[in-house]
Structure formats: structure tokens, C-alpha cells
Amino acid sequence: MEKRKLAKIPREEASDEMVRFAERAAGTHIVTTKDIEKDLLMVTFYPIRKLKKGKKDAQLRTFFSKNDYISQDLTVEKVKWLTAAYDRMYDISLYEHHWDYKESTGRWTPNMFFWTDADIDRMRSFFKEWSTEKDARDWTAVTRFQDMVKQKRLDERHAKETNPIDALMETVKEIPDEFKNWVSDKAMSFSRYLIYSTRSKNEALVHCTHCNGVTLVDRTKIRLRNNEKGICPLCGSPVTIKARGRMPARICDRRIVSFIEPREEGFLWRYFTAYREVKPDGKTNDGLFEIVRTFYKFAPNGTPCTSSYEYREYKQTGIVRWCTDEGYRESSYCTLYPGNLPEAWKDTPMKYSALEILAENRPSEQIHYAKAINRYRKFPQLEWFIKMGLYKLAAHLINEFHDGAFGYESRNGIRGLRKSGKTIFEILGLTKENTRILQSIDGNIDELRLLQEAQSSGYNLKAEELERFYKLFGCNTTLIRKENRKSTIHKICRYIEREGADYRVGESGQCWRYSYMQRKERPDIREERLQNCAKDWLDYLNWCKELKYDLNNMFFYFPKNFKKVHDRTAAEYQALQDKKAAEKKRREDERIKREAEVMKKLLEEMLKENAGIDNAFLIKGKGLILRVPRDTQEIKNEGAALHHCVGTYVDRVAKGQTHIFFVRRVEEPDTPYFTMEYNNGRVIQCRGNHNCGMPASVKAFVAAFEKLMKEREEKMERKCG
Fold first, then answer.
1. Dihedrals φ, ψ of 13, to 5°?
2. Alpha carbon distance, N-terminus to C-terminus of the chain
């Protein structure tokens, strides 16, 4: 529709007959219709409230074509167009709903009245194709038409955003079968189970979810324990052992996997959700669906420029499609397909990053590979870590990276690493020999710190000792030091492994922790047993120190049947703590009792000294007097001198909401000592310098004041009565 041409149509006014009719009309508007030209209808609204005042101007007119509509606001002189439908206009309500509470029924009454039958005939004729036989109201077809136009306008706006995205997505290729196979065999390799059910004392039926084989095994030759790690007797792959009767309804394993697709400029990083459901009968259900696509381009200086899109519902339309990435989908931590690297980004700054080596050796570990781009630009030595086989340290460097800094960074580097080092040995803070030890076990950041601590204390820690110690005690650098232990690390680890083989796991009902793993690898329950034993052993040593046991005696340091000794020592330690607590409570009770006796004596002396005084403000005793503030400034000065907040009470004192008094020494009546707040017949608080507590003399003085004030108020009540 040509709005300029429509705006030139003269504005119509109501007739005198319409004004007279408005005096007895109900509703809100009188409506007229007019055919402007073929397939163009004008609908004009006259407000009844203005017609009653003699004003003939129309409020609104709407122009309808066969595929569009637009309204003109006639309450202003300038041309003002409105695109809203009637159900979204502020002062237009086509119908009003009335509810009959007696009949529990409702009805709609029209607010708009067509002036003549010809007006309503023109309306019905124009919207004939939008009406149905079931329409009971005249405006239903109009509303249906406007809904169609609104949807059309919305689709046009959406198309401006979605069409470029669709054009871009058409350039994306199909994922290769090699990637799908890699996801199943490598990325989801942690999700393999050997499900067993006991047939007899020494025989069990096992089902491997990886090779789908079923066989009977001799339990005397193969260890079968729920949630422990093992090897499938059929295909030889590492598996997690599950007891069929103790499994949940399903095990849900998930990984975010990614694939790099080469492009003419940069590359496309594609993220997928891979999941596997395992049921107690051994049946599995695998799935792979794409969630995020991030297009990378690089500036001449190597700075990455990205545009990202995610597969989700588009603007609450119910349509699931590719949309601009707003962070609804998780794509940060992922595994990376190494099969087409570094060919996929050979023309980018990442071609020498060696990330394909890291991805090849950590196929099921989710790493924030997207951060590796900036990490590699800021810290090219990342390539050294990967090519030396320090994959765990490389992953830690990537995951802990924050833009412009080394994660949790100190002055010298990230927790154990020295970023200013010129060589790998300076960065690690290790000798060549200890660096080779770290390489041999692919040590993580905590194992690096253990090696650094052992090196600084002059202890030559072997690779096997380091692995065993970390598995049991974690990053306990304190125990590494020779002065903090009574035996060698080898003997300590051997003792924990012997005593913790069948140690308690923890609270019951925790089986789900071994069934639902998203980012981390599933732990072996045997390791948790040993770790719990190691933790309890360290607690036991601390208790022995409190109990004055001689830990130089190996009978106490490495007790036999540790579980029983631990529980017995815990009871002894608790008894000692209870004894100390009882002694502390006894001393506290005695102190309170002594203070109460002193307080009672002081109060008796003070009341005797103030006998016969009706005015409680005149009390004195033990070298103390009570003073009333002269003005508000003196209250503020009191707070400043004693460093408390009485100065903020000025407004409440002025309004009579509370009362402030000064407790002073007799020899220094003008020097602040204690400040007292009195309200509602009792002393609210009495504070000294820096809010310190009251000594016994001040407590007695305050109690005497409170008692005299109470007696004075009771005497006043008797006089008034």
C-alpha cells in the first residue's frame, strides 16, 4: 500500500445524527466502512465518549488490502502510522467479556457498533474468504486476517536473519565415516562394560558391551567386583565391571566431540554430542548429533575471528534449526578428532601447534581445545609439552588459560610452572633426570609439584614411587618431606595398599557416581578404597600426636588391622576432646560464678550508696557517675572518641526513639569512658572503646541504673493511679 497516497485522503467527521445517537449508545466506538478503490477498504473508528462531548473527529482509520493492513492515528495532526493489530492497540477493544456468577457462564458483548447495515455488509464482503460458518462474531474474520499478516511480516523479518545462515550452512560438508568410527572406538572408549551375573559360587555369566560377546567365566581366575576396572576375557579391551543386579535402569555416558573441516579461509570447528545408553541386559544405544559450528578466520597478525552458530529452537517458534550462537549449547570442553590434522588447518597459525598429537593420545578426555588457539599464540612452548609426551600438563595449560594470563597465576607463573623460563627445564623447575621421570608417567600439574618438592628436599623420587604416592595421597607435598614422615615412601605406600585393599568406600547409595560420567573419566572403586585408607591414616597420625603416642615406634606408625585400630583411636581421641571440652566448660562456669559474686557484691554496695535517691540520673558508685549529653554534637564526639557507632544514633535520639547516656569516671567527668543506650525500660547496650565489653564495676553500675529507673517508673505509675 502507498502510504503517501493514503495519507492524502481527507479525514472524515461524524454526522450530527451520530452525535445524537452517541448520547444513548453503549460500547466504546461507532465504526464506518468505505471502499476507497478495488480491493482497498477503509474502516474508521469514532470514540463514543468524544461524540457525547460534541467532538466529531475520528480516532483511528485502518486501510485493508487483500494481503496487508495499516492504521493511521487521527488524534494527531501529523501523519502517524500504526502497524499493530487491533488486539495490540491501547484504546481499541473489540469485545468485552461478562461473567455470570449465578449461571457460571460468560458472554462477549461488542464494543464496536457499525453505523449502517451497508457498513457491516462492506466489512463482511471484504473479509468473506477469511470467515467461516462457525464464526459467531463480526470481527473474527478481521482478527484472523491480521494474524496472517503478522505472521507474514514476522517470517520476512526472520528470513533476513536466517537466509544468510542457511546459505552458509549449505557450504558445510557431510561428516566422514572415519570420524563416526573414531567417536565409537576412541572418544567413547571409556564407555565399555563387562556386565556379570553370578551363576554359582565360582562361576558367572559375563556380557561385554563392546564386543557383544557372552561367556561363562571362572571367578577364581578373573576378579569380578562391581565398579572396578578390568579386562574383557573375550576381546581384551579395558572395561568397567558392573554387577547386573546392582545396575541402575540405564547408564548414560556422554562426550562432546569435535571435528575440524578445512575451508578456503580458515577452518570450520564442528561440535557434536555423542552419547551411549547401556541397560542391564547389555543392550546399548549410541547417538551422535551436531550442536555447534564455529567458523574461524585469521587476521594477518594471527588473531582469530569467529562466527558461531548452534542448533536449537529459533526464537520460540517451535522450529529447530541453525541459529546464532548464544551459549545455549555446551561446546567448550570436547575431544578432538586427529585424523585430518594438521592438514585441515595447514594454512592457519595452528599448523605447528601439535594438537593432533595431544588429541591422538587423549582421545576420550574433554579439553577446552578452543582455548588452545590463544594459548598457543601467547605461549608457543605449549608445543614442547605435547611433543615431549607431557599431555596432562598440556591439557592443564589449555584448560586453565585466561586471556592474557596463566590461569591461577603467581608472579613467576601458573602454580608450579615458570613461564619466564628459557628452556623446558627452567619452565618445569626440574632437573633433566626428574624431567625424564615426569615424561615417563605423563605427570600432571600435581605430580610436577610433588617432584619439585622432592627435588628441593634432596629426595630422589622414582617414577613408580611418584605414581603410587599420587594415587594414594594426591598432591600432599607435606608428606613428601623427610622430616614429616617416619619411614620411606615405598613402605608407606606398600602399607596403605595392604591395609586398604578391602577398605570402606564411603556412604551407601553412591553407585550413581560410577554410572553417570560426563567430563571426567570414571574412577576405579579400588583406588577410592586406597585413597580413603590413606586419608584415615593421616588423620590417625594426627590423633596419635594428640594422644602422646610414640610414632617412632612402628607398632604405632604402621598398626596391624588398621581399620580396627583407626576406630579405636578415634574413640580415644574423641574422649580426649570431650574431656578438654568439659574442663573448658568447668573453667568457664567457675569464671562466670566468680564474676556473678563480684557483681552481686558491687550491686549491693552501689544500691546502698544510692539509697533514697529518686532520680536515677544522679547515681554514683565505684568511682563512676552518669551524665546526660548536652547536645547532638557531644554524642557524635563520643562515638569518634570511643570508635563506635553511637554518632549514627543522633536522629533516633532527636525523635525520642531511644536515649543515650554517658558513663564517666568521677575523676575525669569530661573524658569518654562507656556509652549506654536505654529504651523501653531496659539498657539495650553499653559499649566502651572499640565496642569492648564492660568490666564488673561498669556492669554493676548499669544494673543499679536499670533497677533505680524501674523503681522510679513504678512509683510514678502508683502516683498517677
1. -120, 155
2. 90
d(CA 475, CA 484): 15
How large is the angle between the packed helices 463-473 and 445-456, nearest 10 degrees? 120
Q: Which of 625, 711, 610, 715 is nearest to 667 (CA)?
A: 625
Q: Hey, what amino acid is at 65?
A: S
Q: Which of 274, 279, 282, 230 is nearest to 255 (CA)?
A: 274
- Nearest Cα to 599, choosing from 706, 485, 501? 706
With beta carbons less than 8 A apart as the criterion, state whether 50 and 75 touch.
Answer: no
563-590 per-position pLDDT tens digit: 999 999 999 999 999 999 999 888 877 8
Query: What 8-state DSSP symbol labels residue 351?
Result: T
b/e code 688-711 from CB counts within 10 Å (16+ = b): beeeeebebbbbbbbbbbbbbbee
Alpha-carbon distance of 489 to 450, in angstroms, equals 12
Q: Are 368 and 359 a contacting pair, CB within 8 Å?
A: no
Entry field: residues in the chain:
721
Tell me what pLDDT residue 56 has.
Answer: 94
Cell, residue 278: 547401556
- Give the phi and the psi of residue 340 in degrees, each rounded to 5: -115, 20
Report how far residue 131's alpha carbon sits from residue 503's, in angstroms, rounded to the nearest whole number: 78
Backbone φ and ψ for 346, nearest 5 degrees, come out as -65, -25
Is the CB of residue 320 less than 8 Å from the CB of residue 312?
Answer: yes
Looking up cell 523479518 gives 157
Task: Determine whether 249 is exposed, middle or buried from the number of CB atoms within 10 Å of its CB (0-12, 13-18, 19+).
Answer: exposed
pLDDT of 604 reads: 64
pTM, 2 dp: 0.72
80-110 in b/e burial notation, b at 16+ Cβ within 10 A? eeeeebbeebeebbbeeeeeeeeeeeeeeeb
Query: Taking the CA of residue 464 as centre, how many other CA atoms within 13 Å lie in the half-sphere pointing to its CB?
Result: 4
DSSP 111: S
Q: What is the mean pLDDT of residues 73-85?
A: 94
Q: Long-range pairs for 441-444 at CB < 8 Å and ≥24 separation?
A: 441/466, 441/467, 442/389, 442/390, 442/391, 442/392, 443/390, 443/392, 443/393, 444/392, 444/393, 444/396
Phi, psi for residue 673 in degrees, rounded to 5: -130, -65
| Confidence category of residue 701, pLDDT binned at 50, 70, 90 | confident
What does the pLDDT read at residue 413?
43
DSSP 589: H
**Mean residue pLDDT across the chain:** 87
pLDDT at position 705 over 60: yes
